[in-house]
Design goal:
Length: 510
């Protein structure tokens, strides 16, 4: 062969190899495109679809299954054996398994597609479905290695003569798109369905959420109570997820079949983490405001005490000295000069009125009786407030409760003062009882009257007195209760811990 002929032959061979490579590359690309399209159809198909590997005509292994197949046959999962005809599975229809094995054997041995109808019990709504099953064998080197199985509910097939309006499909679409977490449990408290929102919350895939149990014993106890009673239940639950803690409001609804039997529980959860965070912020803000109010009250009480002491000891003594000097001037010069004595008497009278008025102001700012025990303080308050009104009263202080610290005595005094003020202004009562006694480990303060009572509606403008008494009760770290009805009198009861009040002074926040 000449050199030119050899070169031409080599060039023709290279061209053939290039064309062959292009054809193979196009075939490979087309194969990958078809495989990708197949996987997309397999995953997104509304039909239940699974791929079985045929180890032999009587032994099959599940290779893959889509979400619809996982929900219809929850016992099957990837890399698991396809149950034999003799398998005793509590949630698989044995008739379906027997028919499946018989038709799988036929498809593998004859390498032909098989289509038949069978009945399968759905564990989502506990109904028996009439399904069409299509088996498509896939042969390699003339031997069937895999079988693709499609299962379709005949009622949902638009080409079937048996097609009927299927509201279940509409309901399922709403459930799948719901932002709330929705799960379905059978009568054994096994989770047999979870919508995408539930799976996103738990961070798991569809098959594993059905096989694995992701709820604690307390949650299962709630499920059992609903299964036994047939009554709905509501509660809050905190879930520990990959993104942190999530608080959900759970509503459990019993699933009841046509015979009235409870067959399972439907769980509907709504994420209320943001609401709980807002509630915590409000609670913390309220607590901070109460602490600030307590500090302000303590500071005001100290200021009032200092002002009252200064007015009593300084200005009171100055006025008393002034009166004594005027009296001495009157004794010395009043008789020889009657007109001067008359003017001095008028001045002394005005000075006496000023001293009385100043003592009243001091008593309002900080009653000196607060420096004594709580029993004396409350008796003095009731006498000063109610005697001039003609209202009968009695004060009963249990023995041993006179050792309150100054802060507690002041708060109890102000509570009773506010209650008596309301009695005088609004109650039209004829009798009032004040009781301070021990109750368990704490103390109970009660102010009771036989007046006309009032409406407990807090929306009214005249309820500010109730709010003020509630704040005073909070400063005592106690709880206050108002009992009243129109024409039936009023009872105000405050229960507060005795340990903090009796043993040590109340600690203000730093």
């Amino acid at each position: 062969m000449s050199t030119e002929a050899f070169i031409i032959a080599a060039m023709l061979l290279c061209a053939a190899l290039v064309l062959s490579g292009i054809v193979l590359w196009r075939q490979l690309a087309e194969s990958r495109r078809l495989e990708k399209q197949f996987r997309s159809l397999f995953t997104l198909s509304g039909e239940a679809a699974l791929v079985l590997r045929a180890a032999n005509p009587d032994h099959f292994v599940v290779m893959q299954l889509n979400e619809a197949a996982s929900e219809l046959l929850p016992e099957l999962h990837a890399e698991s054996e396809f149950p034999s005809q003799r398998a005793k599975l509590p949630r698989v229809d044995n008739g379906f398994m027997q028919a499946a094995h018989a038709h799988l054997r036929q498809a593998v041995q004859k390498a032909i597609s098989v289509e038949y109808e069978t009945a399968i019990r759905s564990h989502i709504n506990n109904q028996v479905l009439t399904c069409r099953v299509r088996l498509h064998p896939m042969a390699e080197s003339g031997v069937v290695r895999h079988v693709i199985c499609f299962i379709q509910d005949i009622k949902s097939d638009p080409k079937s003569e048996k097609t009927k309006p299927n509201r279940w499909q509409e309901f399922r679409m709403l459930v799948e798109q719901s932002p709330d977490t929705i799960a379905h449990y059978d009568r054994f408290c096994h989770r047999i369905y979870a919508n995408p929102a539930f799976r996103r919350l738990m961070g798991v895939a569809a098959p594993s959420i059905i096989v694995n149990e992701y709820c604690g014993e307390s949650y299962r106890m709630r499920l059992r109570e609903v299964l036994e009673s047939g009554q709905e239940d509501d509660f809050e639950s905190t879930w520990l997820t990959s993104s942190g803690k999530v608080t959900s409001h759970i509503h459990l609804v019993p699933a009841i079949d046509a015979s009235g039997n409870v067959t399972g529980v439907l769980s509907i959860g709504r994420d209320i983490s943001a609401i709980k965070a807002t509630e915590n912020n409000l609670r913390e803000s309220k607590q901070l405001l109460r602490e600030l109010n307590a500090r302000r009250e303590a500071e005001l009480r100290q200021v009032r005490k200092e002002v009252a002491r200064e007015m009593h000891e300084d200005y009171g003594q100055r006025l008393s000295m002034l009166r004594m000097k005027l009296a001495m001037v009157n004794m010395t010069f009043g008789k020889p000069h009657p007109e001067l004595g008359e003017r001095i008497d008028e001045t002394l009278q005005l000075l006496d009125e000023t001293i009385v008025h100043m003592r009243e102001i001091v008593s309002v700012i900080h009653p000196s009786v607060l420096n004594m025990d709580v029993s004396t303080a409350l008796e003095w308050l009731a006498n000063e407030t109610l005697t001039i009104t003609g209202i009968d009263f009695d004060v009963h202080i249990e023995e041993g409760l006179v050792s309150f610290d100054e802060t507690t005595t002041s708060l109890v005094y102000r509570l009773v003062q506010s209650a008596l003020s309301n009695v005088v202004r609004h109650a039209h009562a004829s009798r009032v009882s004040i009781i301070l006694a021990r109750q368990g480990d704490g103390c109970r303060l009660e102010v009771r009257d036989d007046g006309k009572g009032f409406d407990l509606d807090r929306s009214k403008k005249d309820s500010m007195g109730m709010v003020a008494m509630e704040e005073l009760a909070n400063m005592l770290h106690g709880e206050i209760v108002f009992l009243s009805a129109v024409g039936k009198g009023t009872v105000i009861e405050v229960c507060f811990p005795a340990g903090r009040s009796l043993a040590q002074p109340a600690q203000l926040p730093v």
